[in-house]
Amino acid sequence: MDKTHVVWHAHNVSREEREALNHHAGCVVWFTGLSGCGKSTVANVVDRELHKLGARSFLLDGDNVRHSLNPSPAMLASYGETFAKRFGLGFAPEDRQENIRRIGAVAELFVSAGMITLTAFVSPYRADRNLVRSLVTSRGRADDFIEVFVDAPLEVCEARDPKGLYKKARAGEIPHFTGISDPYEAPESPELHLQSAEKSPEVLAAEVLAYLKKIGKINAIS
Ligand SMILES: Nc1ncnc2c1ncn2[C@@H]1O[C@H](COP(=O)(O)OS(=O)(=O)O)[C@@H](OP(=O)(O)O)[C@H]1O
Ligand SMILES: Nc1ncnc2c1ncn2[C@@H]1O[C@H](COP(=O)(O)OP(=O)(O)O)[C@@H](O)[C@H]1O
Fold first, then answer.
1. pLDDT number for residue 2
2. What is the set of active-site residues?
3. C-beta of 70 in contact with ligand 2 (< 6 A)
4. Could you give the 3-state DSSP secondary structure of residue 32?
5. Can you tell me the distance from the alpha carbon of 111 to that of 183, in angstroms, rounded to the nearest whole number?
6. Ligand 1 pocket, Cβ-based, cut-off 6 angstroms
7. What is the DSSP letter of 137?
8. Could you identify the atom of ligand 1 that is nearest to the CA of residue 162?
9. How much is the average pLDDT of 5-15?
């Protein structure tokens, strides 16, 4: 039993009413994969295409969310060490778990607002992604969580290395780096499996849009 006496409050405007206004359904399109696999690039193309179609979409992106909702302990230093340690997030497994849990809660709110919510996080642990899936689908509908595995071999991501992070990780300057000193647990049955080393971001984005159309999320606008 929740001893905090916090009670869920029903909304006056329903999700269905918001979706009717939008002329499309809400959902979460959850991009996952190694750093540098192309999550942000593909998600941004999808976002742009959805915007062109007149959809209400929004992209929650790893780097940006870690500057705002989920800052590192160092970013919270001005609040004092105890606070920063308690609420700041790094990349240890329990930090990533909390990062993904909070993002999942935000994504679930966006879906209930009838929005197509795109997320681009490494989200390396299956259990964390599955927890978001069950939160989103239990509060919403069975097809509300679309897991998109952006698949590029580690060698390809490392060769791309746009932020120079792999180089630093190889030099031992970044602990817990996914693919180098931390694991990546590939999705076992994602809704979509994108081959990012073989196809362009535009082609991959078209695969996402085709899927959204196939399951009836954007029929009325595409
Ligand atoms: N240790 C470690 N491992 C992986 N990635 C790291 C790490 N440290 C910093 N970065 C940078 O932070 C981005 C990943 O943040 P996420 O919030 O997506 O990570 S996670 O979902 O909590 O695993 C990730 O962004 P992308 O490159 O866009 O994936 C990196 O730029
Ligand atoms: N399908 C693709 N083919 C070739 N290069 C790509 C592709 N997708 C992304 N890139 C390039 O790979 C790098 C990493 O992409 P990014 O979207 O930042 O990855 P992530 O968000 O997964 O870290 C960028 O330089 C980007 O231009």
1. 67
2. 123
3. no
4. strand
5. 30
6. 35-36, 39-40, 62-63, 66, 91, 96, 99-100, 121-124, 163, 165, 174, 176-178
7. H
8. 27
9. 89
Report the percentage of the chain scoring pLDDT > 70: 99
One-letter amino acid at 60 equals: L
Q: Which domains does the chain have, with CATH numbers?
A: 27-214 (3.40.50.300)
- CA 139 to chain CA centroid, Å, is 18
- DSSP 8-state code for residue 35: T
The Cα–Cα gap between 26 and 217 comes to 7
ipTM for the predicted complex:
0.99
* Strand locations in the chain (E): 27-32, 57-61, 116-120, 145-151, 192-195
Q: How far is the CA of 171 from the centre of ligand 1 (A)?
A: 17
Question: Annotation-wise, does 21 bind a ligand?
Answer: no
> Which long-range contacts (C-beta less than 8 Å, at least 24 apart) are formed by 136-141?
136/28, 136/104, 136/107, 136/108, 136/111, 139/108, 139/111, 139/112, 140/15, 140/26, 140/108, 140/111, 140/112
Q: pLDDT grade, residue 11 (50/70/90)? A: confident
